[in-house]
Amino acid sequence: MAPTMATRRWVTFDCFGTLVDWRHGIATSAELLFPGHGTEVLERYHVHELDVEQAAPTMRYRDVLTETLRRATRDLGLSLRDDDATILADTIAYWPPFPEVAEELGALRAAGWRLALLTNCDRDIIGATQRRLGVDIDAVVTAEHVGSYKPAHGHFERFRWSFQPDQWVHVAQSYLHDMRPARELGITRVWINRLDEPDDPSICDAVLPDLRGLLTTVERVAHDASAAGEAAAG
């Protein structure tokens, strides 16, 4: 049976890493400045970003990008000019979505699910990125809105308070930033393990290597969560 318009069925997504290929974006942007070093810069960037976010949770994400890049290039002994330091913030609007994104998000919308982004970035950045996803997004919660970065709970709590979903499935690539806090808050969750990471999959309701077939998985885990809730209430 198709859901009624009154049913609040939501799938929320992390954006960068889940829908948008941020690894490609960072590495190729770094290659423009340091040919042959893009992958090295990416790996050092990944080491520092969480520390930057946690040290300054109200810092705008474009400044997080800049400061993290400075630390990454310093580690590698690369000389980053001041007027080049904003390259990640300057190029992020052009980072590409993964190839299956538009089709899989479109299938969710066609089945009656509403779509939202819970993203560790600024409003202007996500506004520019949304046009590349190929599907309308119904709601967005940014770090700028809540004054914190995931894995803090602010994004999830703001979304729950604002939209009071009847069914809610969170889909994300980051185990640390998304799967752990979603579990702590009792949110049904699907881990998109694009990098074949070794973290414990048992804390997730489902694990996929990418978004292909996401609709089937979302509807299964949502059904299981509803059944479990009814059993507990009964």
Molecular structure report:
The chain is of the alpha/beta class and 234 residues long. Helices cover 48% and strands 12% of the residues. Strand 2 (114-119), helix 6 and strand 3 form a beta-alpha-beta unit. Helix 1 packs across helix 2 (38-55) and helix 2 (38-55) packs across helix 3 (61-75). The chain starts with 8 loop residues before the first strand and ends with a helix. 37% of the residues are buried. Residues 1-6 have low confidence and may be disordered.
Strand elements, count: 6
Instruction: Note the main sheet.
Output: 6 strands, parallel
What is the element string, with H for helices and E for strands?
A: EHHHHHEHEHHEHEEH
Radius of gyration: 18 Å
Any idea what the shape is? elongated
In the predicted model, the low-confidence regions spanning at least 5 consecutive residues are 1-6
Category from helices, strands and their pairing: alpha/beta
Percent range for β-strand residues:
5-15%
Strands side by side in the biggest sheet:
3-2-1-4-5-6
> What is the first-to-last residue Cα distance?
24 Å
Q: What is the count of DSSP helices, taking H or I runs of 4+ residues?
A: 10
Specify the helix fraction band.
40-55%
Q: Average pLDDT value?
A: 94
Q: What is the strand and helix layout of this fold?
A:
Elements (H helix, E strand, L loop, with lengths): L8 E5 L8 H12 L4 H18 L5 H15 L11 H5 L9 H10 L3 E6 L3 H8 L8 E4 H4 L7 H10 L3 E6 L2 H10 L3 E5 L13 E3 L5 H20 L1
Parallel strand pairs: 1-2, 1-4, 2-3, 4-5, 5-6
Helix pairs in contact: 1-2, 2-3
